[in-house]
Amino acid sequence: MTSTMTTGNSTIDLGATGGWRSIKSRLMIGLLGTAFVIVMIPLVLVLATVIMRGGKVMSWSFLTSDIAASERRTSGGIGPAIVGTLLTTGIATAIAAPLGVLGAIYLAEYAGTSLLGRVVRFMSSVMTGVPSIVMGLFVYLLFTLRFKQNAFGGALALACLMLPIIIRSTEEMLRLVPTTLREASYGLGTSKARTIISIVLPAALPGVVSGVLLAVARAAGETAPLLFTIGAAKGLNLQPFSGANTALSAQIFGNASSPVEAAQARGWGAALTLVALAFSFTIFARLVSARFSSQR
Amino acid sequence: MAHPVLDLTGRRNRGEAAFGGLARFAGILVLIVLSLIALVMTTRAWPALTSGNFFTTKRWSVPDEVFGSLAFVFGTIVSATVAICLAVPISIGIALFVTQVSPGWLKKPIVYSVDLLATVPSVVFGFWGISVLAPKIMGFYESVHDLTSGIPGLRSLFGQPNGRSMFTAGIILAIMITPIVSSLSREVISTCPQGDREGALALGATRWEMIRAVVIPHSSGGLVGAVMLGLGRAMGETIAATLVIGSSAQITANLFGAGNSMPAVIASEWGEALGQHRSALTALAVTLFALTIIVNVLATSIVSRSRRRAQGTI
Predict the structure, then answer these.
(1) Closest residue, chain B, to A156 (C-alpha)
(2) Best interface-test mutation with B: which of A17, A130, A177 has the largest number of B CBs within 10 A?
């Protein structure tokens, strides 16, 4: 007796010798598990390198002092770069978060299945895939040519990058809010805008915040949008609109291709700081969303 | 979903309309930004795009003002293809493992640690690539080069090795796109109906046979979309590629040879560029933008189609 199972184009002979089939199954499943192990190798290697080499230069004075005046110096730190990263990412978030959340409100609450809604939803998905260097070049041509290199230009480029990410994640979170909640609010005579502001948004808030934080973590690590827009300052600059600034990612990029050992060491120190920063944003986002799901 | 409200007061509320309008504007902003990018960059790139040889020559010479993009288009495609070949089997393997094989308690740790890869900034991967991977991998490249030196075809693919090469860039890009490809694949695969899978197991199929006969045919469409989105990311990744690709404008079959990609050229030359050179670099950005938009439009429609099919709306 022969029995076969057919799905699509593939036919499996269920009558084949059982021993070989179960061995083959275990082999293939072992291979699937190996895929995970393989991908963990670079992660562990990269993190180990960053921690070991970055740890060597890490100190309070490294984190706070100015960028070395010349790359041959053994002194110097990354203080201005940390401030620059926080400043540009902060401004970018202040621009992209409200606009992104509003855009998501449009998609989830107003657009419905209208043509405009579908086009906006589709194009914001597409926009998440636009290379970050293109955003940097775009802001350079539109803003930096006129207003010179400063922190705000870098923030604009990062905001272009964050906007679609925030729209996508926020829309998903708004859709998780039960329709009954909205209907209950309407039933009490509340208007649509009021319902969204005081019922829907608060209900989705932890998820929205977590999505924004993930976008912040992504933006904080970006180099390409800042390359042409932010300049290269050596000292602290808290002015967003005047004077060049710098960022951790730009410092790593600059030091990475340097043949000088001291510069490389500073690059690893900056890398450790940046990875720690990005990880803490991500972990914070996870904690926020974990609280969200335990509430439901 | 629209939520109709009966206006019981009969008065039109201005705040109401303003809020709706504001939200609508924020949505349209995405379209505005995308069109502005296309418009501003194409205007600046026009002199180079119409110079006649931008798409026809591989020669890129600043002093002679000859700017051909072919070598960089080639480098972009080759490094992205290497990345896809390395990342796709691994990403889909992880996705299948998480959704079909692993016990429940192991799922979250696996997903979180793969996502952790996406959190590491690309410049850190580039830095690691240039100072650890590129010197260490030479030994491996040399042995592959020696092994294949007698085989025609393979001999030219694995030619004279170079630590900073298109292949090294491919490896780094593969590491960087694995999280996104595997999370999209996971989403696609998890829509496979439980009933079909249990049916296959009930017929006596082993777990692998169930995966091959039910899960893979069901999700193959969505998986293609996931892979294409990964391809788009790999083509546009700038900083890591700039550091490890070797910066050499050549078209060679040698995967172990140095090359250059469009984003990498822009990143490394923009600072000193003027006039026609700047226009040519902008033209590279326009080409890259157009290429990634095309890939992403195709991929997004494939993925959302398979998502809708899973929800049963088409």
Answers:
(1) B33
(2) A130
